[in-house]
């Protein structure tokens, strides 16, 4: 069972999410938080697999809450679910540690698939969020990028497209085990925690496929 904590200050939103998620056989909603501070406290106590986090909340916002949750429990996955798709909200959320970013207009079935994708270790970003990331100007790549091998750069470029390990393996004609090894090395070299942060890093520093040509 996937254990999910819902954090949103709107009662109607929480009720709607709870109603739908409870119909999924592989998901258990373990709690509901009404603000960021409560989300941090409940995450520490309930140890959910995923926190479904609103961005704008009283007492403590979703970005602050995400940062605190990841500091205390790096293994807990945070999926941001919000109405804001602009770069000024997307980038800080990912930098704080959110592994996924979806908008509240997402279809229920797509939201559930996003949760399952995150449990598989994949990144999940709403197309509008991805578009906003791509609009950002590239910064000079830091020296650490030079430590990436040509193959690791290829894997990073494919990862940035949101591809799964299997899809990357197919595209590069290598095994999934090899892809996992490359991704682990990329995380270590770039000092990032997950695929979403690695993708953001690649976009910011022009390491997407186009940026490396």
From TrEMBL:
Matching SUPFAM superfamilies: C-terminal effector domain of the bipartite response regulators (SSF46894), CheY-like (SSF52172)
Organism: Planococcus salinarum
Lineage, broadest ranks: Bacteria, Bacillati, Bacillota, Bacilli, Bacillales
Annotated InterPro entries: CheY-like_superfamily (IPR011006), NreC/VraR/RcsB-like_REC (IPR058245), Sig_transdc_resp-reg_C-effctor (IPR016032), Sig_transdc_resp-reg_receiver (IPR001789), Tscrpt_reg_LuxR_C (IPR000792), WalR-like (IPR039420)
Protein name: DNA-binding response regulator
Residue positions where 4-aspartylphosphate is found in the record: 54
Keyword Methyltransferase tagged: no
Keywords per UniProt: DNA-binding, Phosphoprotein, Transcription, Transcription regulation
Domain Response regulatory positions: 3-119
CDD domains, per the entry: LuxR_C_like, REC_NarL-like
MF (Gene Ontology): DNA binding
Keyword DNA-binding set for record: yes
Any Pfam family the entry gives: Response_reg
Domain HTH luxR-type, residue spans: 141-206
